[in-house]
Amino acid sequence: MSVPDNDPLGWPPARWEAWAQAQGLERYRARQIFDALHREGRRDFRAIGVLPRALRERLASEMPIALPQIARKEASRDGSVKYGLRLSDGALIEAVYMPGERRDEEIVEFDDARRDSGLGTRDSGAEPRRPRAASPLVDRFTICLSSQTGCAVDCVFCVTGRLGGGRNLTSGEILGQLYAVLEDAHRGTDGMRVVFMGMGEPLLNLPGVLPALDVLFEIASPRRITVSTSGITPALASLAALPRRPNLAVSINAADEETRTRIMPINKTYPLAGLIAALRRFPLEPRRRLLVEYVLIAGVNDTPQDARKLATLLKGLPVKVNVIPLNEDATYLKEWRRPAEEVIDRFAAAIAAAGLVATVRRSKGADASAACGQLKGRTRDVRRGRS
């Protein structure tokens, strides 16, 4: 389910060119409009001075642009901000702004935050920090976007999934949330990284996500864009066929079919074996790896034996394993617990001992319920009619 996609904010260059041709306009007008919207930040067609006045007035009248309304903001002690954004039909989604990356580090939201937490990594098995000179914080940041107003995948460790499915976002709504956050944070796109790790399953919304990627690739390197999936195996082929591809993050969370089905019901439809086979076919450019996300849940998937099984499953794949200790929620995830620190360390060490690169993610924004798996938008389960 989705709303009609007549929002020009989500149109990639090719669609603007087709529109211009249909209107009898010169082709270069399409690029002028696109650049004004996405490189210059224009939100009113009347302000695009390079266009003829009549065209500006017509565009403003027929295709007005409106960003989602910021309904609420919750700030974290680490500088992250969770935004509640109201869409035109009243639906509420959430996006997260995460500041504070350093110039010479890799993507911090995938990194081992214990390096800076005082917990140490000597015996953790985490990837060692590269030697470097001291570097001040620079203007790099990450924005986590939603692709749906809920999520029907229903992973047991995710608040969004616990609250049920919702409609797809249009490409214009996806980009609208990005620009609403950028404008509120007084940021441009320089230094920006984007991750589709918010509400929803991106690969269940290819009609919205793929055009949004086309636009994002015009203003940021594909290496700075990451799409995360629970493993919608057939849709991976659509990503693989793109001439420019984002980073791919895959939520695995268990190395055997039974355990994965228990915590990720989507495994019944798209079993682990088929997902791994699809990942082995996925094309990767030089120096790119697949990111395997593994939410660590106490007593479920957190033993060294689980780690060794995971390493065997992933053998031969160019991967980085991102271990994510469960972000607990007393309301929506009552029966699941975060492992103890020593258990997290043992798991990461076992991954590293098996020859895989392993990091541990200390998700940003946890004190504002903005961390991995905590976004919700609404507070009522639409399937069960309960809060």
Task: Write up what this structure looks like.
This protein is an alpha/beta fold and 387 residues long. Helix content is 29%, strand content 17%. The protein has 11 helices and 10 strands. The chain has a 10-stranded mixed β-sheet, with helices on one face. Strand 9, helix 11 and strand 10 form a beta-alpha-beta unit. Helix 1 packs across helix 2, helix 7 runs parallel beside helix 9 and helix 10 runs parallel beside helix 11. The C terminus is likely disordered.
Concise summary:
The protein is of the alpha/beta class.
Number of helices: 11
Globally, the shape reads elongated
Percentage beta strand = 15-25%
Share of helix, binned: 25-40%
| Intertermini distance | 23 Å
What is the residue-mean pLDDT, rounded to a whole number?
A: 85
Order of helices and strands: HHHEEEEHHEHEHEHHEHEHE
Radius of gyration: 21 Å
Main-sheet strand order equals 1-2-3-4-5-6-7-8-9-10
Provide the descriptors you would attach to this structure in a database record.
387 residues; ten-stranded mixed β-sheet; 17% strand; disordered C terminus
Write the layout of secondary structure elements.
Layout: H1 13-22, H2 27-38, H3 53-62, E1 69-75, E2 81-86, E3 92-102, E4 137-144, H4 159-162, H5 171-185, E5 192-196, H6 206-219, E6 225-229, H7 233-240, E7 247-251, H8 257-263, H9 272-281, E8 290-296, H10 304-313, E9 319-325, H11 341-353, E10 357-360
Parallel strand pairs: 4-5, 5-6, 6-7, 7-8, 8-9, 9-10
Antiparallel strand pairs: 1-2, 2-3, 3-4
